Amino acid sequence: MQPQNTNTQEHSLYAEHTKIYPREVSGYFTRLRMLSVVVLLGIYYLLPFVQWGDRQALLFDLPARKFYIFGLTLWPQDFIYLAALLIMAGLSLFFFTALVGRVWCGYACPQTVWTEAYLWMERKIEGNRGRRMKLDKAPTSATKIRTKALKHTVWIVFSLWTGFTFVGYFTPIDELGARLFTGDLGPWETFWILFYSFATYGNAGFMREQVCKYMCPYARFQSAMFDSDTLIVAYHPERGEPRGSRRRGTDLEQAGLGECIDCNVCVQVCLTGIDIRDGLQYECIACSACIDACDEIMDKMSYPRGLIRYTTENAAVGKKQHILRPRVMVYATILLILFGTLLTNLLQRIPLELDVIRDRNTLYRETRDGLIENVYTLKILNMDSRAHRYILSADGIEGMKLLLDEPQIEVEAGTVHELIVRLQADEFNMEERSTTVEFQLQAIEANHLTTTEEARFVGPGKN
């Protein structure tokens, strides 16, 4: 039996990656995006050096379990505030996406911001789009090695500075710098500097649009937040089609052409390498580079601007736009409620906490005077930025005595003070075997600094 010859073909499930060389573009939206990049990077790199009194203005001191945010000090007990901020950040993303589309991706996302910075360095060293493409295709030479080495050296130095700054938000940056120069960095600090540097170098230097296309979940579920009134970047085929090349001054009606000259500049400037003329795509990050590029071409051809522009689906087909629509109002209402609640709680927050732990080794004991005595361990947490002196009192049983060694309790700023106190009461004044008592702590020089904590007083009770 003769074997049959069969032709087999193998198909990859994944498209081969093609490097994108974004073309440099200028225009209103590009300047706005560059301003956003400069401001955000400036905040990131300079904020750790801002001082607030005798400490760093923004510092997440994990070993001490304190978060310093300018004049506010948050403790582990205040984790609810950080959780609320994260929830508000997520809802804000939903709100702004429903209202103005993916402006976060195009103007403020860290991946976009650092990619723009790395692209700027690449252009300064390797040249414009054409020169970069030519350099990559050129055979290995001393010039190519020198140019590539210089680019990657600049990238690595910038990445290391980025990683160092990141760790500076968790370790005081002046202390971190001194330990860096003396070679006394701890293992965790070294790890996170190198890890964050490597992540920045890889994501912004190499992966770039791959992060937006394949790694970022936001691109996948954004359609759930979009509707016909969401702002998008769109090409208007009724103006542009049929596309085709022509000379300037060509009569479009006679030539049977639209305003798109099919120059592909909108594709060349796209950071993710898509063709916006194919319609709305999840890869589009609304960076608006194609808008500026197309407007520049329209100016050269003496056509009106706006062939590619920010618009909505309703506006594109001539329907009425609705800014204040149900989903936007719901997001806005929830955000206002959360913000109001958070602000109210922060303004009413008392930077003082009292923890009372009753001695459970002995239920109670009887003194020589025939009184019932309970022993408690008190922990006073002063969450304020300065030291305070406090007066402690207790109430709950008639004639009850509070015995402690310190009539005035002084607690330094940001510290926990622990002390032992005793409560004594006559058993005839106790209605039950276990009675609720209340400790009250009051700052001497600050009337608003007061807190109370309940505890149980145990005795034999009445028969």
Alpha-beta content class? alpha+beta
Instruction: Give the number of domains.
Output: 2
Unreliable stretches covering 5 or more consecutive residues: none
What fraction of the residues are assigned to beta strands by DSSP? Answer: 15-25%
Number of helical stretches of at least 4 residues: 16
Instruction: Give the overall shape.
Output: elongated
Mean pLDDT: 91
Helix content: 40-55%
* Gyration radius, rounded: 33 Å
DSSP strand tally: 16
First-residue to last-residue Cα separation: 107 Å
Largest sheet: 5 strands, antiparallel
Would you kindly provide a written description of the structure presented here, covering whatever features stand out?
- The chain is of the alpha+beta class and 463 residues long.
- The protein folds into two domains: 17-349, no CATH class; 352-458, Immunoglobulin-like.
- The protein contains 16 helices and 16 strands.
- Strands 8, 9, 10, 12 and 14 form a five-stranded antiparallel sheet that branches. It has a four-stranded antiparallel sheet with strand order 13-11-15-16, with no helix packed on it. Strands 3-4-5 form a three-stranded antiparallel sheet, with no helix packed on it.
- The radius of gyration is 33 Å and the shape is elongated.
- The N and C termini lie far apart (107 Å).
- The mean pLDDT is 91.
